[in-house]
Amino acid sequence: MAHTELDLRERRAIEDMLNAKVPVSKIAAEIGRHRSSIYREIKRNGFEDEELPELSGYYGIVAQREASKRRARRRKLIRLEDLRDHVVAQLKIGWTPEQIAGRLGHDDQPVRVSHETIYAYVYSPEGQSEQLARHLPSRRKKRRPRYARRPSGQVFPPDRSIHERPDYVKTRETFGEWEGDLMIFERSQGTMNVASLVERKTRFAVLFRNNDRSSTHFINKLMDVMEPLPQPAWRSITFDRGFEFRAWRKLKSGIGTDSWFCDPQAPWQKGSVENLNKRARRYLPRDTQLAALSNRNMKAICDRLNGTPRKCLGWRTPTEAFREEMMKLR
């Protein structure tokens, strides 16, 4: 059934029943609306008087007037022909509603509208008759519900996808491209874990104990580890989409390190650190008592991993390969 707005008769009925102390759920049943619609109506169109709070409340005629004002604002693009023609012309050349609304003041338009008003017009019967939605980037015939319009990529945006990562990172041509992960242990260890990092070109490994799985704590600890090295040694780091890595933007703003992210449920896309984790499990099994691990213990494990010759490095050790790359930066 198509959505229809409340009319004056319904609003007066709500007023009468509220005055009679009728519960909202019963009001909704009486007028054939969902109770959430009634709650929203009371909240949006109720009257508040700061000077005489005893006069505050819900009044049908006042609610109708407020709703009409709101509807009139939404329909500016129907009433104002010059504004409408300008907006439609910009839509047709590929501008987004946000861009159009933001430029109205610069384009000498006497009346402003928000991008939400433009979207509302695009998906209105008038806009649909002109097939305006096809000019939007998404080209959806219907607009998604507002709660569903929150970008799913806000935390890990599409331009940070591993598929956008430069090819030279994949081919291991440049030094300073890392992969990162967390090694998780038995539940008895609580939030304690071990962060594992590996430089892709040299296979140089860094392990450190991390006492808290919160993203801010982890990223701050990671930056402390990175800080002694010159910035070219930390060009980028690739993570999976675990919640521990949500504060990745701090790496860029703090030390200039780019972050890339695997596809959901695809940790194998950062194969170097996955391989490191398997090798490190020889020394850090899942039942390891992390609280007893000192910094000296962690360094000893790193030294053993980095001191082992690797076929992929021409039988050099990661330490030797890493040292050679660092010398080039001087």
Largest sheet: 5 strands, mixed
Q: Quaternary state, please?
A: single chain
Mean pLDDT: 86
Q: How many beta-strand segments? A: 5
Detail the poorly predicted runs: 147-153
CATH class of the largest domain, anyone?
Answer: Alpha Beta
Per the principal axes of the C-alpha atoms, what is the gross shape? elongated
End-to-end C-alpha gap? 71 Å
How is the CATH topology of the largest domain named? Nucleotidyltransferase, domain 5
What does this structure look like?
There is one protein chain. The chain is an alpha/beta fold. The protein folds into 3 domains: 8-73; 76-139; 158-328, Nucleotidyltransferase, domain 5, CATH 3.30.420. It contains 15 helices and 5 strands. The chain has a 5-stranded mixed sheet with strand order 3-2-1-4-5, with helices on both faces. Helix 2 packs across helix 3 (35-45). It is elongated, with a radius of gyration of 30 Å. The N and C termini lie far apart (71 Å). Mean pLDDT is 86; it is low at 147-153. Residues 130-162 are annotated as: Disordered.
Summarize the structure.
The chain is an alpha/beta fold and 330 residues long. It is built from 15 helices and five strands. It is elongated.
